[in-house]
Specification:
The complex is a heterodimer of chains A (287) and B (267). Chain A is an alpha/beta fold and 287 residues long. Chain A has one domain: Rossmann fold (3-Layer(aba) Sandwich). Chain A is 40% helix and 21% strand. The longest helix of chain A is centred in the middle third of the chain and has 16 residues. Chain B has one domain. Chain B has a two-stranded antiparallel sheet with strand order 1-2. Chain B is flat, with a radius of gyration of 23 Å. Classes of the chains: A alpha/beta (287), B mainly alpha (267). The interface between A and B is medium-sized, with 25 and 21 residues.
């Protein structure tokens, strides 16, 4: 088990008139090689939760365990933990600061105290992972790039630390469709290659396409956890919490209501297969 | 971390002090400051102390919140006290040990100056704690508007202050966020030598400046898009009005100066 939250609560600005409970007694475990999607309405506490995973925020009560050890027990080990649990903030492009893209990506590895050679190879590796061409933009200033490219530079800056767990806060917010599908396939690849991923998202379609497990937050508490099939089978509850189901689930629902022999599903490929089979009259294998 | 700064923070409750006109509060804060400077001898501070306690009680601001506004000044306070205590050598000697001596004059100076400082800070923080920043700048603009005749840019100054005040929390929040994002990449802001700490600020300051400039540009466009053209002929949503409470406040605070002077004479 990679990360585990035990009864974690967090109150912002406690004992003031501004105090706000952002997390309320959350217990959640994130297994190795999970791709956990964290969904919930705006202000439900997702970003707050994400910042507890690498010790940037401390629980007001409760514990956060990484490989079975309380991460807040020894504050001097926190920095090391952050190299293993990489966190990419929402709109991470606003944290770029170096003169060149390569130097910016090297910031994390340099803080780890690696050798120059190792840093260089990690920077190139990370750029490759997110589909940036080192020759083309490695020496450019990060501020000359497009928003989507900046986002990938920021992501590469975290990947270059080779974290075991990658936490992404709304990685696709504000990107155009192409940049978005690039980024999603990057995430998919990282997950396939063995990284545990926690992804916050407002897009049910993205969640349906990628997640192996889903956690639903509602007003600071954990409302549901389960596989995508389990979660998306309860559209009423999701809608009540200001969320929705993927387009494909809606389509399946309508087709079923119209009397077609379709099984409920949430992935595009699954739906396509079912429909193809139906239209062809039951024979033939369609890819 | 950075969020704990209470610089000019407004404390949102309803109280007779909150309801006063901002102009009243600005003028009376000045009157109060003058009164503090008129205080002679420890007895001379008694009226100010009672006045301050009364206002704090009326304002509904918890006393702990008031004390917090003194925290940034604690070093200065200790300095003032210690310097006056040990380095004034006139007057009756109260205590002597080797080269250290404390005199009666030194002690009373030390107490007076520290008290004066505490009173000034508490009084002025009370103004900012009970007045929303925007009301404060409205009040200032209104008070300064007679000076427009001699070319003083009262409206522009007030607008600049409003914007600056409005963006302090935003920038603090932004700094907090960038700091966290860089910490997530292993940046270390709190240990190491002075130079390495200064260098550690670069990853924080560069993005912060860029975002401040971007925000300034955006804001300028947004203001122009809503036809902002300066103060000329601009009407207000909230019109400042003096009420009965303001008259009462003027009378009570106005009495503070003569009473302070009188109390000082009694000694
Ligand atoms: N610094 C803060 N001080 C006080 N309250 C805060 C602070 N940050 C967040 N909150 C409050 O905590 C709650 C959870 O915020 P959080 O940012 O975790 O939500 P979120 O689920 O990430 O929302 P979004 O989808 O909009 O990103 C919100 O109600 C918010 O108002
Ligand atoms: Mg968020």
């Amino acid at each position: 088990m990679a990360l585990e939250l035990q009864n974690v609560s967090h109150t912002y600005q406690p004992n003031t008139p501004f105090s706000a409970v952002a997390l309320d007694n959350i217990s959640l475990s994130i297994e190795d090689r999970d791709l956990l999607a964290l969904i919930g309405h705006t202000g439900s506490g997702k970003s707050t939760l994400a910042q507890h995973l690498n010790g940037l925020m401390k629980p007001t009560s409760g514990r956060v365990l990484f490989n079975g050890k309380d991460i807040n027990e020894d504050a001097s080990r926190l920095r090391e933990l952050r190299f293993q649990v990489g966190l990419v903030f929402q709109y991470p492009e606003y944290q770029l600061f170096e003169e060149t893209v390569e130097k910016d990506i090297a910031f994390g590895p340099r803080n780890m105290g690696l050798s120059d050679e190792e840093i260089k190879s990690r920077v190139l590796g990370a750029m490759d992972l997110v589909g940036l061409n080192p020759e083309e933009i490695g020496q450019k200033s990060p501020f000359e790039l497009s928003g989507g490219q900046m986002r990938r530079v920021a992501l590469a800056g975290v990947l270059a630390m080779r974290p075991k767990v990658l936490v992404l806060d709304e990685p696709t917010a504000g990107l155009d469709p192409r940049a978005r599908s690039f980024l999603l396939s990057d995430i998919k690849r990282l997950h396939r290659e063995g990284t545990t991923v926690v992804m916050i998202s407002h897009s049910m379609d993205d969640v349906a396409a990628l997640a192996t497990r889903i956690a639903v937050m509602d007003h600071g508490s954990l409302a549901m956890t389960g596989t995508p099939a389990e979660i998306f089978a309860q559209p009423q509850r999701l809608i009540q919490m200001g969320l929705n189901v993927p387009q494909v689930s809606l389509l399946a629902g309508r087709l079923i209501a119209a009397g077609l022999p379709v099984k409920p599903c949430f992935r595009m490929e699954e739906m396509a297969d079912q429909l193809a089979e139906l239209l062809k009259g039951g024979d033939g294998d369609v890819a | 971390m950075l969020r704990d700064i209470t610089l000019g923070q407004y404390y949102p409750v309803d109280s007779p002090i909150h309801r006063l006109d901002p102009r009243t509060k600005i003028v009376l804060t000045i009157v109060y400051i003058v009164a503090v400077f008129f205080g002679k001898g420890l007895l001379g501070y008694l009226p100010t102390l009672l006045f301050l306690l009364l206002i704090i009680k009326l304002s509904g601001v918890p006393f702990t919140m008031m004390l917090k506004s003194l925290r940034p000044l604690r070093i200065l306070l200790i300095f003032t006290f210690v310097l006056n205590l040990f380095f004034i050598s006139s007057g009756e000697v109260l205590f002597r040990w080797r080269f250290i001596q404390i005199t009666k004059d030194g002690l009373s100076h030390a107490l007076r100056f520290s008290l004066r400082l505490i009173f000034l800070v508490l009084g002025t923080s009370l103004m900012t704690l009970t007045t929303p920043p925007v009301a404060l700048t409205d009040g200032l603009e209104s008070l300064c508007s007679p000076l427009k005749k001699i070319g003083f840019p009262a409206h522009e100054m007030a607008m600049m202050m409003t914007i600056a005040l409005r963006f302090i929390p935003t920038l603090i929040e932004e700094a907090d966020k960038i700091m966290k994002a860089q910490s997530a990449r292993g940046a270390d802001f709190s240990s190491g030598s002075v130079t390495s700490r200064a260098r550690a600020m670069i990853p924080l300051l560069v993005p912060l400046f860029i975002s401040a400039f971007r925000r300034a540009g955006d804001l300028a466009f947004a203001m122009e898009a809503r036809c902002y053209r300066g103060g000329e002929g601009r009407t207000r949503l909230h019109i400042l009005k003096f009420r009965k409470g303001d008259a009462v406040a003027f009378v009570i605070t106005g009495l503070l100066i003569p009473v302070t002077i009188f109390a000082g004479r009694l000694l």
